[in-house]
Amino acid sequence: xxxxxxxxxxxxxxxxxxxxxxxxxxxxxxxxxxxxxxxxxxxxxxxxxxxxxxxxxxxxxxxxxxxxxxxxxxxxxxxxxxxxxxxxxxxxxxxxxxxxxxxxxxxxxxxxxxxxxxxxxxxxxxxxxxxxxxxxxxxxxxxxxxxxxxxxxxxxxxxxxxxxxxxxxxxxxxxxxxxxxxxxxxxxxxxxxxxxxxxxxxxxxxxxxxxxxxxxxxxxxxxxxxxxxxxxxxxxxxxxxxxxxxxxxxxxxxxxxxxxxxxxxxxxxxxxxxxxxxxxxxxxxxxxxxxxxxxxxxxxxxxxxxxxxxxxxxxxxxxxxxxxxxxxxxxxxxxxxxxxxxxxxxxxxxxxxxxxxxxxxxxxxxxxxxxxxxxxxxxxxxxxxxxxxxxxxxxxxxxxxxxxxxxxxxxxxxxxxxxxxxxxxxxxxxxxxxxxxxxxxxxxxxxxxxxxxxxxxxxxxxxxxxxxxxxxxxxxxxxxxxxxxxxxxxxxxxxxxxxxxxxxxxxxxxxxxxxxxxxxxxxxxxxxxxxxxxxxxxxxxxxxxxxxxxxxxxxxxxxxxxxxxxxxxxxxxxxxxxxxxxxxxxxxxxxxxxxxxxxxxxxxxxxxxxxxxxxxxxxxxxxxxxxxxxxxxxxxxxxxxxxxxxxxxxxxxxxxxxxxxxxxxxxxxxxxxxxxxxxxxxxxxxxxxxxxxxxxxxxxxxxxxxxxxxxxxxxxxxxxxxxxxxxxxxxxxxxxxxxxxxxxxxxxxxxxxxxxxxxxxxxxxxxxxxxxxxxxxxxxxxxxxxxxxxxxxxxxxxxxxxxxxxxxxxxxxxxxxxxxxxxxxxxxxxxxxxxxxxxxxxxxxxxxxxxxxxxxxxxxxxxxxxxxxxxxxxxxxxxxxxxxx
Length: 885
Prior knowledge:
Elements: H1 2-18, E1 28-30, E2 32-33, E3 60-63, E4 74-80, E5 84-92, E6 113-119, E7 127-133, E8 138-144, E9 149-151, E10 159-165, E11 168-176, E12 187-198, E13 203-206, E14 222-228, E15 236-248, E16 261-276, E17 279-285, H2 313-316, E18 359-361, E19 368-377, E20 382-391, E21 394-400, E22 403-410, E23 413-424, E24 429-440, E25 453-465, E26 470-482, H3 485-492, E27 515-527, E28 533-542, E29 559-570, E30 577-590, E31 596-609, E32 614-622, E33 625-627, E34 637-639, E35 642-650, E36 657-668, E37 674-687, E38 690-711, E39 718-740, E40 743-764, E41 776-778, E42 791-794, E43 799-802, E44 812-815, E45 819-835, E46 838-852, H4 859-868, E47 872-880, E48 883-884
């Protein structure tokens, strides 16, 4: 087996060498100074200063016909003064009445647009993107990792105007140097790219041609010369804000905390301070994120936590410099990382145990008292990212007939992240490291189940060679947690490791431990570009003791894995396709006991047809799985192999009406279990300023072995499973209406219902048996006259009673697991940028959550039951004012 992997790698390497291509020649543009009379932004380019600058033109098409001439020419000029960079772009169009001018909210990037990308560090890795569409809507993104990461939550303050005429349209931009980061120099050379989108033909053209199979984006930029004598700015920006909110919810008789209404007035401050011309410090004091959209609904029946994307602006902006994923790719381990910002300001760990007639009020999240972030890159190529945040001690207030007491539910906590990375060889080689620390004040005895301190870190290395065609990536990680015996015991028996498993003889459950240490790593070698063929070979490991969940995210430790990926793409129209790609994947995984726990592979591909439709799909196979978590701390259990299949089709995105269909299907080798999901999308644009979308989905989950409970009995633990018949339906609605580029109205709503009914309850008897049927005993399945009495249902308290030995006495019982979960979440946000950088928000959010245990799915009844639930409404007004000092 190992010889076959070596042969595969050598074959791919030699094939890749044969398909190599020569690098494209760098283009250079020289900007002209315009002091003391800068141009006035009006989208006309008729100011005298523009006459002193030269036009740059001769753009090259990148999509769909890579390397061909564009349909219409584009040209630009660049000038500057001591404070600003000015960019004028003329986008020719023989049919100006067909220019698509969509009025949207900032960063939507719809319609015809032009953009400039600036590598002002000139590190060949990072950049800043400024986009303006033909309707005057701005977009901006921070670029990192040589174009692999684009952060649309970066919102600098800059200015632009557009105009349409008989020759096409014109864009005029003014970008303050305060919004860029650059080293201290007398004369600058920056990387630069100008990019145009011709929407009605889905065509993109560039000043500096970067082939679609190039190994990098920023590293392939042309160059901007001529900028001299720009002074370092103080770059002090203040954004104070105030928030007024009203919450209306269901009143509860006798509960003094559920009066049906409460109000709140608060304020805070965000600030940016330019420590140097290329280092920025961000500070937030008492931040409010009330305008942030709610997470999508879900019902999680696994042992593991769900990963949710960060949506809070302070943590999103510049997040890539603090990003340290412990494995690449996009598989089941791809979310694992050393820094998961949603740990900061999370919901409390503890919920008080209430006595009879007591009521409580528990904070929804730990308040962030203050947070500071320092990010940037020095002239020598050293990237710096430092974040420190403090969350307050939180208390639950408990009432008993007017007598009040308080109980701590979350300790005061300090979170620290430090990240350094040094570039060499113009960014082709980098060495870096990261360190995180979580320290809690556990003076409250009831919180001693938490880790007192948690530290993690790692070293990473990246090397590219032969014009960045080939790469080698390596990362290591470690963790160390400290706490009471109870805290470390909880870490040992957590789902990430389950030290208590009776068949895990390679780990030891030690109830006297007060610390736990682990380690991990990742290595990959591949070809990233300059060829139609790309490949990636690699592997990773996580020791059983690795624990990152105090400030990071770790789904599962105790894993070793190897993988192989091969892909190719068509960059010119061929046959029925404008573009097309196909990929092959293979993986194999073990635990630290040397047992194979998973294996599989897939083939997938897709592209855009010449009628502008998109199609994609794939098929995959997973071998027999040895699950170390299915029995929630019991022995590992074998599960059947499975076949996966998926597809997605969407129509022409240029049209006023666009729809799509797709699905995902899984069939298990037991012949009884399957999962089927179908989704549909509809997007309607009645006119350029409005879009309405609806995305319904429905799935059917029929699983012969769904975990129910683990019950202690006189004969040992009983691991109980059942056959679940589950149906889930959700619909996501969005309405976006932009009155102007600075005033928008957005609505998001999602009703979600899921019903699950259990039958054929089972007790696991031999989880590793070769025969599937020998791994469990189904209650009442022996065929004897008395077998039916092996399990019975008590409707009075909704419990099942089990009499294993059929002696008439109940050996143990478990609750009825059937469920109907119903939830509705919605946000209505009016956003008005009343002056550049200053914003007013008007927000209405509503949530409804209900639960019952009949388990029968009925769309009409479940939807009616959902909207019978009393709503929780929040109304808020948030006003911020931007000051630049």
